[in-house]
Amino acid sequence: MQKVAPNLAAVAGPLLGARLITLAGGLDRLARMPASTIQIIGAERALFRYKHGEGTPPKHGV
């Protein structure tokens, strides 16, 4: 992780950084995502629950 994305590893930590890269579909796609999209990565279940009227809107993902 330190060789692939040292800044991400420093900010988010190596485990969370690797998980974000995986959920985004790659480092290139993660780098091009807006912050609002990165914020709710991993909150798909909560988002679909909200869209079906069964919960509150997700504010945080991973």
Q: How would you describe this structure in keywords?
A:
60% helix, mainly alpha, 62 residues
How would you sum up this structure in a few lines?
The protein is mainly α. It contains five helices and no strands.
**Percent of sequence in beta strands:** under 5%
The major β-sheet equals: none
Q: Domains counted in the coordinates: how many?
A: 1
SS-based class: mainly alpha
Q: Segments where pLDDT lies below 50 for 5+ residues?
A: none
Mean of the pLDDT scores? 90
The percent of residues in helical segments reads: 55-70%
SSE topology string: HHHHH
Question: Could you give the distance between the termini?
Answer: 18 Å
Question: What is the count of helical runs?
Answer: 5
Shape: elongated
| Secondary structure: number of strands | 0
- Give me the Rg, rounded: 13 Å
List strands and helices in order, with pairings:
Layout: H1 6-12, H2 14-24, H3 27-32, H4 35-39, H5 44-51
Helix pairs in contact: 1-2
Describe this structure as you would to a colleague.
This protein is an all-alpha fold. It has one domain. Helix content is 60%, strand content 0%. The chain is built from five helices and no strands. It has helices at 6-12, 14-24, 27-32, 35-39, 44-51. The mean pLDDT is 90.
